[in-house]
Design a protein that fits this description.
globular
Length: 559
């Protein structure tokens, strides 16, 4: 029920060493078959020049506790709830009727969410108890105790005992475990209790086997757009700077009590989310699994590998090639996007660099989009999840190895050791390839009807504000080797596809002198997503995440 990979356990203390490391939060799902209802893809013809698309998720919500605000994102208006520690006094009202919150599991998200919830409620002297539920005999009992949870005060116990006692059950065990144990979990929940999820996988699994959640319970989701360690680190930073945290989406799937929205918003506020936006469980599942195979992990992996080789063929040393490819992305390009938006990367270039950017962008957009559309179709149809399940069945015979022993990542370690943070270049060709892939990912999601809030978070904010800072700190290969089984499987499967198609189609087009597609460049410069990204940038945490600071969250590393 805990980590799905062999890890070195670490005790959760208030002074975790900076060099201890992290794993992604996206866990493996156990979907055995996909139903047409759950996974039917919306096939949209691929276009060289993207067109604006109104979102198919026209949702609205109301709250009697928090104040939703209208935010204009491109040509749509969505409702956000802005967070902050100044809203903590409203938590008792949002959690009205809840006496005990059970956080089930101890992977990446659970330690962060449990501690944030506990600390936020304690700050306003709420009597609501936050308890950790773990399987009997789990080694994580000691880690939870190290974070201040204990059996003596009723904040730590066997998972089904905690489930039976809790009014809000936040289920953060692996998706495979959820699929295996959902019947026992549902049966253990007390009448009127609320089921909380941080991923839409369980809904997808139930759809695939023709089952549903019990009708007598609220089912909600709060999905932080970052790894568990990010959720905790920025929350801790937020103790000094109000509003620091990881933004989150929320969904209300069933509202039997009429209080589900308030509970979900209270949960997100207590986690420290600087803003929350609405989605559905199914939309979250599709965009999340798609995103991690794209620009969040798989695509950036493939881009770096392909550019590292290309730059060496052009005469660079291995160290120069790594600096101009990987370092340029994680240390310069994404920092610009994080604070100023995607188009700012282009706007700050001189005329010569803009020409190089345009050449790379024009050549890379369609090859990248071809792969990204395929990924979305595979995820939407359920095929990608079946791939993960089949891979899992082969693990005993074919265990997953590490990728950090190849030349690219060995050189990367040397470059990081000698890094001059103030002089990391912004390579215009690298920027063109990376931004083209990011824009292609955005366009696929928009064409499939996802709202701008979800598109921007899954394609931009999670990449530049959560994942890339850790890639910059420890390396892209480290992230691939230490992420969840589903993310690892997806990155290893799709990163080579990005690598090959860029090498075979994009870079050959550049080398053969193919003219820049001026319409495509104009579509990039005038794309409505830029307004949406800039608006979301205004809502970002007021501090950058401190990846090396002391923290009290769990960080783990595969040996």
């Amino acid at each position: 029920l805990d980590a799905m990979t062999t890890i070195q356990p670490s005790i959760c203390t208030s002074k975790t060493r900076a060099e201890t490391t992290m794993k992604l939060t996206i866990a493996a799902a156990a979907l055995l078959a996909a139903s047409a209802t759950a996974f039917a893809p919306a096939f949209v013809p691929t276009k060289a020049v993207p067109v604006s698309t109104q979102t198919a998720l026209s949702m609205s919500f109301s709250s009697n506790v928090f104040t939703p605000e209208e935010v204009k994102l491109a040509d749509t208006t969505e409702l956000f709830v802005k967070g902050g520690r100044d809203l903590f006094p409203l938590l008792p009202k949002a959690f009205e009727g809840i006496e005990k919150i059970g956080v089930i599991g101890w992977g990446s998200q659970a330690p962060a969410q449990a501690q944030n919830l506990r600390d936020s409620l304690a700050e306003v002297d709420s009597p609501i108890k936050v308890s950790i539920g773990l399987r009997e005999g789990s080694a994580s009992f000691e880690e939870a105790k190290g974070c201040g949870f204990s059996e003596e005060d009723g904040t730590l116990g066997e998972m089904f005992d905690v489930i039976r006692e809790s009014d809000l059950v936040i289920l953060l065990i692996s998706d495979a475990a959820q699929a295996r144990l959902y019947k026992e979990i549902f049966a253990a929940m007390k009448p009127g209790a609320t089921l909380g999820l941080s991923h839409g996988f369980l809904l997808g699994y139930l759809d695939s086997i023709g089952e549903t959640f019990p009708e007598d319970m609220d089912v909600i989701a709060v999905c932080p757009k970052g790894m568990g360690p990010s959720v905790r680190r920025l929350y801790e930073q937020g103790k000094e700077v109000n509003g620091a945290g990881i933004n989150a989406s929320f969904a209300v799937h069933q509202d039997k009590s009429g209080k589900a929205t308030e509970t979900a918003l209270g949960w997100g506020i207590a986690l420290g989310s600087p803003f929350m936006f609405e989605t559905t469980l199914r939309s979250e599942y599709k965009s999340d699994i798609y995103g991690e195979r794209g620009i969040l992990l798989g695509a950036v992996h493939g881009i770096v590998e392909s550019l590292y080789r290309r730059y060496q063929r052009q005469g660079m040393t291995p160290e120069q090639a790594f600096t101009e490819s990987c370092e340029s992305i994680t240390g310069n390009i994404v920092k610009t996007i994080s604070t100023k938006g995607i188009k700012a990367v282009y706007d700050q270039m001189d005329d010569d660099d803009k020409k190089i950017f345009e050449t790379a962008y024009s050549a890379s957009y369609m090859p990248a989009k071809e792969i990204l559309q395929e990924i979305y179709d595979e995820v939407s149809s359920g095929n990608e999840i079946r791939t993960v399940i089949m891979h899992g069945k082969r693990l005993d015979k074919y265990p997953v190895g590490k990728i950090d022993g190849t030349d690219t990542w060995i050189v990367g370690e040397k470059v990081r050791a000698n890094r001059d943070e103030d002089n990391i270049p912004l390579n215009p060709f690298t920027a063109g390839v990376y931004v083209a892939t990011m824009m292609a990912q955005i366009d696929v999601l928009l064409e499939q009807g996802h709202p701008y809030s979800e598109v921007v978070n899954e394609s931009v904010i999670e990449a530049v504000d959560s994942l890339c800072p850790y890639m910059h700190y420890r390396g892209v290969a480290f992230m691939v080797d230490n992420c969840s089984f589903t993310a690892k499987t997806g990155s290893r499967k799709w990163a080579p596809r990005f690598d090959y198609i860029l090498d075979q189609l994009a870079y050959t087009a550049v080398d053969n002198g193919k003219p820049v597609d001026k319409d495509l460049i104009e579509a990039f410069k005038t794309h409505k997503v830029h307004d949406a990204v800039e608006e979301c940038c205004k809502l970002r945490p007021p501090v950058d995440i401190s990846v090396s600071a002391e923290t009290s969250t769990k960080e783990i590393v595969i040996q």
